[in-house]
Structures are given as structure tokens and as C-alpha cells.
Amino acid sequence: MVGRRWTGSVLQAAAQGARRFGEYRTMIDGISDRLLSQRLKELEAAGLIERTVIPTTPVQIRYQLAPDGQALVDALLPLAQWSMRRTGPRGAGRRVPSA
């Protein structure tokens, strides 16, 4: 699942704290609403993302890393750092590069 397109970007955005759907969309340049929704559902089903419903009007939904998701991000961080050293920064001006 981690190798699927955009999954790394969603995990990276989630690692920065609990977020609403629109915040993910803003942080991940180029991802469609449909694909973002699909990745969040997949990550939730895998136990890597937790979905919290806040009963307000309108209802708010927040997504954050689950403990297993945080462990995965921690494990992938050295690989991402190695990749950045080898290739240099890509996509200048983008906050979260696509996976």
C-alpha cells in the first residue's frame, strides 16, 4: 500500500497533525478529491489513519495518524532523507511532493 501513488504524501501530511479533508487537499498539490478520499479510506482500513467525527453543525471530520501510522512514518523517514540526499529537492514550491 505504501508504494501506491499519493499514499506517501497523505502520510506525510498526516504526520504534521490532525487535519480536515480540505486541509489535506491544500497541502497535497495535484491530488484529486476522489483519490484523496480513497487513500484516506484505505489508510483508515489498514489502521494507519484514525478518523474522528466531531458532532458540530456542520459535522467536522478529522484525520490523524494512528500509532501504527506514526511508526510507519518514523520507519520511512530515513529512506526519505536518503532519497533527498541522492536526488536533491524536487518540485520547488510544493509543500508535499507526490509519492
TrEMBL record:
GO molecular function: DNA binding
Entry keyword Transcription: yes
Keywords: DNA-binding, Transcription, Transcription regulation
Record-annotated HTH hxlR-type domain positions: 1-91
Top-rank lineage group of the source organism: Bacteria
Entries under InterPro entries matching the protein: HTH_HxlR, WH-like_DNA-bd_sf, WH_DNA-bd_sf
Keyword Hydrolase: no
SUPFAM superfamilies cross-referenced by the UniProt entry: Winged helix' DNA-binding domain (SSF46785)
Record protein name field: HTH hxlR-type domain-containing protein
Classification lineage: Bacteria, Bacillati, Actinomycetota, Actinomycetes, Kitasatosporales
